Predict the structure.
Amino acid sequence: MSNTPQDAPTPELSPRQLQILKLLQAGKVNKEVAQELGIGLGTVKQHIVAIFKKLNVSNRAMAATHGMELFQEQESRNASLPMASLLACRPCVVLSIALPQDAPPLAAKLMYGSLAAMASANDAVFLARNGNAGDLIFGIQRVTEYDLAIALQTARVVYEDLLAINKETAEMLHGCMTAGIAFASMKRFGGWTGEAIASTAIASARELLSDIPAGTFLFDASALDLIELFGIGGTQQVSPTMFFRELKHLRWTGARRTYHLVGRVTELTQLYAALTEATKGIGKLIFVEGEMGMGKSSLCDAIAKLCIQQKGRVSFYRSLPSALGKNLYDTLNETECTIEVVMEWLRATPIHPPELCIVDDFHLLNKEQQAALYAAGTSAVNNGKLLILSGRRWVHDNAPTADQSIRLRRLSVEAIQVLVRNALGKGAIKGRAQKVLRITNTAAGVPLFAVELARHHEDEHLTLPLRVAINARLDSLRLDYNLLREVAKNAAGTSLAEVANTLEENIDLLRQQMERAVAAGVLACGPEDWLSFTHPLLRQAIDNLVMER
């Protein structure tokens, strides 16, 4: 799946954030906003930070401008296609936290306030409960692969807030993280309607919470599976049960579940040739592009190891989601760092060539951060360094022309079969040959899909990790889910005319949504507007949105 500038996702702001954005457009200062809405000044500031993050802006003027475009698009959508809600199955992460019922009222109030603030800033649903307990549900408004990391950060924030007022009270805090499927009423273009939500993951979290000792935090098996896939680690290993005070040692590293790099001989040869040139003091800027699960990080890992084998210097960073408060993770030093640290490394005089700098998940950085690294990267390349920027798309106007671009396409059937066999292992598996064939066909060239399907080869349904990975991508595109669901009903596809007839809607308006889905790489359009999904797991993910039949 790909994305283009004109198909950039529309930010999903909460009703309160939309109110504040309109007041910012009217020129109101923070104090005036607080007075008009009857909320605290600190709450206004938290909402404004969240608005800036969602709109990807850095000041009030930019927010006001982007807000006008947002409101115009919403009005246009409301005036075109019906916005009826639909009940959907969505992957979710649940964080449940509690204090003893006899905890000081001030501590309970602080805990509830911290949870509410984090929920507002991160698109989570906050459910306050009697008995000094509360739940945060991530993935209802929008699924992201970072929901686990943000939930973990929330638990740390609550603990640290309590620790600041009373250590004994903080040590009474207990909590857990679960993952599963939620049934929620959703808007046509994504986002929760606020009308209905239910999940066995919530019930499971609450049941676990009742038996967790004070000062302890627990991860259920599903949460641990997601953690292994999406890259939470740190100076301490994640274990099912930990002390709350130990959570500070865990962080999102971006290091996904690793697998043997296969089928990328051509790409690795190109990178090795550039590394050889860097040994001679000839620098180069290379873009590595591909969607999630195509092997970008594995390719970067491979060239970094080759550089080290040649006694060269390597600097390897992974960009972090803005919600985590830091810019990058230094994979070699195992610590978080800022953009300035990377820029300093890029601008420094080479010491011992070849010198290689890798910035993975480059798409997570905002435009200003990307522009700053581009500028510093020019100095690095001129000084003979090899700079590799790896990400999902290159859509910003300030992107320079790369010396070389490598786009990771789907792997061959033979390469996927190798991955599947490796992931299945050497143990006895009934019907191994048939499973290798089935998984290979279902993965359709995507390495991540192949490995995850093999790991869960006994499951007939789409696994939770794959649901998260796929839904995170689909949610970011803000496509017409009614259209996608109609196409998903038939494995062979359907015509746009049939969809329009079933939905009883204007075919020209639906064609606009079809074109968006095609441009995003989700749907393929054949002769006579025949629609089908570009990947079988995309169709299965959409089909799974509907409540189990």
In short: The chain has four domains: 5-80, 86-252, 265-407, 479-549.
